[in-house]
Amino acid sequence: MNVKQNGATATNGAGVANGNGAHDAGTVIDCRIENLYYGKFHALRSTHIPIAKGTITAFIGPSGCGKSTALRCLNRMNDLVRGFRFEGHVRFRGRDIYHPRVDPVAVRRSIGMVFQQPNPFAMSIYRNVSFGLRLNGVRSEVDERVERALRGAALWDEVKDKLKASGLSLSGGQQQRLCIARAIATEPEVLLMDEPCSALDPIATRKIEELMLELKQRFTIAIVTHNLQQAKRVADRTGFLYVDTSNGGRTGYLVEYGPTQQIFEAPRERHTQEYIRGEFS
After folding, report:
1. Three-state SS annotation for the chain
2. Which of 39, 67, 192, 268 would staple 224 via disulfide (CB 3.0–4.6 Å)?
């Protein structure tokens, strides 16, 4: 992500502009949402989540608490929603991605995303994976990078002999892994996954979970999930969000954030305790 500073362009080795503020070298993203609005709707408040390099962070909580909204803040996907307004900061490698000189398209090259429903393009498996590479001007070693991405998504052995077949011909679980391959082909530093298993059967879900654990060796991952056992199985740290209805609205906020084992085995906050125990109403 290139950012002009006083007429020059400053960028670090990861392709991300360096900021002037100090930050923890182990923190890839520092997300602090003071307030987030869609028009007059106050969607989120008081949410601070630092994400460490090489970890999986899970966002859990009841429907409507703002989990996906918080996740989409991390690569400015909410910018595409009419009436979006953000107060706070999201620092990626020390630079606020909401700074007016930061290009959101460049942000999404460094912070990729996999969506809830598998959404392969209506084109060949090969072209699905190479699409982002060509969009970003990559012309050399495309075959090698496509293969590397498919191997990284644990899909190569299943599709290596049918790369010209449509991505839509694959099963649901394979389609989701194809979308993961497409996302990692451009080698982002962070991978966001919004309910990546919600449309999959238990066998495909297990494959995606195993894949996430492998991918965290190369990428920092943040996921949204309604599946508490999934968060417990794959996440290093977990944030629990809840909904404040005290003023007649529905505003999400972060209740508790910490190591996954602590969140599930010794939650400190009452709302977290009730949710983890299934006593939430």
Report:
1. CCEEECCEEECCCCCCCCCCCCCCCCEEEEEEEEEEEECCEEEEEEEEEEEECCCEEEEECCCCCCHHHHHHHCCCHHHHCCCEEEEEEEEECCEECCCCCCCHHHHHHHEEEECCCCCCCCCEHHHHHHHHHHHCCCCCCHHHHHHHHHHHCCCHHHHCCCCCCEHHHCCHHHHHHHHHHHHHCCCCCEEEEECCCCCCCHHHHHHHHHHHHHHCCCCEEEEECCCHHHHHHHCCEEEEEEEECCCCCCEEEEEEEEEHHHHHHCCCCHHHHHHHCCCCC
2. 67
Rounded distance between C-alpha atoms, residue 139 and residue 142, angstroms: 6
- Please determine, for residue 8, whether its predicted confidence score (pLDDT) is greater than 70: no
Contact 196, 228 (CB under 8 A): no
Please give the structure tokens belonging to residue 66.
Answer: 């703002």
Q: pTM here?
A: 0.87
Q: What is the pLDDT of residue 252?
A: 97
Q: SS3 string of 229-253?
A: HHHHHHCCEEEEEEEECCCCCCEEE
pLDDT digits (tens, 9 = 90+) for 83-102: 999 999 999 988 999 999 99
Do 19 and 94 form a contact (C-beta atoms < 8 A)? yes
